[in-house]
Structures are given as C-alpha cells and as structure tokens.
Amino acid sequence: MNENSVSPGKWLIIVNPNAGIGKGAKDWAKINRLLLDEGFDFEARFTEHRDHANHLVSESIGKGYRDIIVVGGDGTLNESMNGIFNQDTVPPHEISLGMIPLGTGNDWCRMFGIPFDYQGAIGILKKKKTFLQDVGKISYFKKEIRFTRYFLNIAGMGYDALVAKKTNIMKDQHKGGPFTYIYFVFASLFQYKFIEAGIDVDDKQVFKGEMFSMNVGICKFNGGGMMQVPFAVPDDGLFDITLIKKASKFIVIRHARKLYDGTIVNLPVVETYRAKTVRIRSVGKIYLEADGESLGHTPLLFEILPRSLKVIVGI
C-alpha cells in the first residue's frame, strides 16, 4: 500500500483490548457502533503486546494516515505518540492524536477536558478542536544500553517509579482497578530504600543528596487524579519539576491527601523547579516511569520539545 492509498479524512483507531482491565475487548463493539453512528470513516487496529501501538502508528503513518484515535489508557496513548515521533514520513505536528479513554487512570484526559463516557469523547473527536502541546524526550539506560522515549504527560522517578512498576505488574496479570495505584502508594512504603542523586536543571546543579521521589511534568495529573506538578502548563516550553527529598515515610502517609489537591508542593521536604532540561545521576540505580509505563534507570536526561504534538481536546 502506498502513501496515497488512504482516503482523506479516514481515521486510524488503535484499540487496546486489555485496557481498563479488559474493557477494551468488552466495550469495543459499543464504541465501534457509536463511531459509525457519528459518521466516522476508520480502520481499527488492535494491539497484541506491550509497545505494539508504537509500531502500528509508525507503520500506518507511512501508509497515509494523519488522524489517529487511541481507544485505551495512558500507556496506549504514550505508545501511540511514540509511534508519531519515531516515524520520518511527515513532521509529528502534522498528525492529529485523539483519545477515547477506558484506562484505569485517564490522567491526560483530565488535563484536556476529555469526557470519560464514550459518547462524550466521540463528540469531542468529531469537533476536532486541536492544541499543540509540549513533548518530553528522555534518555535513559536499561541493562547498560541507552534508550530514548517520548512522553506527553508526567514522568516519575524513585518511589513514583516503584509504585508504577507494581501497578503495571497487576495490570499485566489482568488484575487491579482504579484504586490499585493508591493502594501501592501505601503498601510499598516500607520496602523502599532512599538513593543519593545529583540533579541539574538547565545545567545548574540544584540538589545533591538522598531523594524519595521526583516528577517531571508537562501536564498536571497522574496516578488517577493526583496533582504532583500542580502548576504545569502544557505549552509553555518548560518542564514542571517536583522533588520530594528524603522524608519520613510517616510524613508521606500523613500528607497523602495533598497529592490530590496539589498542596504537596508546600511541604518543607518538597522543592519545585521549572526548566527546559533535567539531568539526574545517582550512586545506585534510580528507576523511571513515563506516562505510567515502566522504563529503565539513571543516568537520565530530559529535554523539552515545545508545541510539537497536535492533540484533539475538549477545552
């Protein structure tokens, strides 16, 4: 199939049948019917394994698709946007990316006013109001090999990455639900070990010492509605960074509700920054997650790509 074989206006739909603990497979027939009722012309492709959406999107752009809908959760959205940035057929900003959420967190949708009900989300897609948002590019290591990954919401390190890893293990076993992440926020506290880190923002060292957790954000929400980077602006060309230094684990328990209203940044053990680049080094390995996807470990380099992804939004 050549690049001109896809009819103009035809959508590519990436469906994750495992999203939402099996909701993708269970609800696709209903979503398919709603899309047809609204006059969408589309081809649906189903993911079969982790990172499959990345390859499906990259391949499909080469065939001529320019409008993409993700039917899944934040992880499927992350994989799909990586497919946009990993292809070289057209510049990434020429591709429109939208979402029908059915994951357990749906945090990117919270930022951009995407309804969680299928009819409402499809209504947003039909209007096709777009927004150019920033994208983060991460360099990290895994088994001493350097990798690159893009993200569109929030990346987490340290304790945040441990919680994400445990949550993902449950998802891979088709277990858990909306409260799995918050369960592991508490359940993992007493097995976590502090690691010494050196952190540079825009090539200036701002921290050296033991850290508990850290978030580098483009948007505000993660973990099913938490606001660990409450001041993030998705098109300002800057990362918002929240660092939780070494803290008593009882402080974390006591102030957990502040993760949800953004006031966690007011605690004395928390520091915030804004920057275009972030570097993290460590004595031991500090692990990383991005948009909820468990990746690798330090050393890490974050770079911002301003207004480089065109997304379909509801606000």
- Strand arrangement, major sheet: 7-9-8-12-14-13
- The topology string of helices and strands comes to EHEHEHEHHEEEHHEEEHHEEEE
What's the mean pLDDT score? Answer: 92
The top-level CATH class of the largest domain is Mainly Beta
For this structure, the CATH topology of the largest domain is Tumour Suppressor Smad4
Structural class: alpha+beta
Helical amount among residues, as a percent range?
25-40%
Alpha-carbon distance between the termini? 37 Å
Overall geometry comes to: globular
- What fraction of residues sit in β-strands? 35-45%
Number of strands: 14
Number of domains: 2
Number of helices: 9
Q: Radius of gyration over alpha carbons?
A: 19 Å
- Uncertain runs are none
How does the major sheet shape up?
6 strands, antiparallel, barrel
- How does CATH name the architecture of the largest domain? Sandwich
What does this structure look like?
The protein is an alpha+beta fold. It folds into two domains: 3-128, Rossmann fold, CATH 3.40.50.10330; 135-306, Tumour Suppressor Smad4, CATH 2.60.200. 29% of the residues lie in helices and 35% in strands. It has a six-stranded antiparallel beta barrel. The protein is globular, with a radius of gyration of 19 Å. The relative contact order is 0.17.
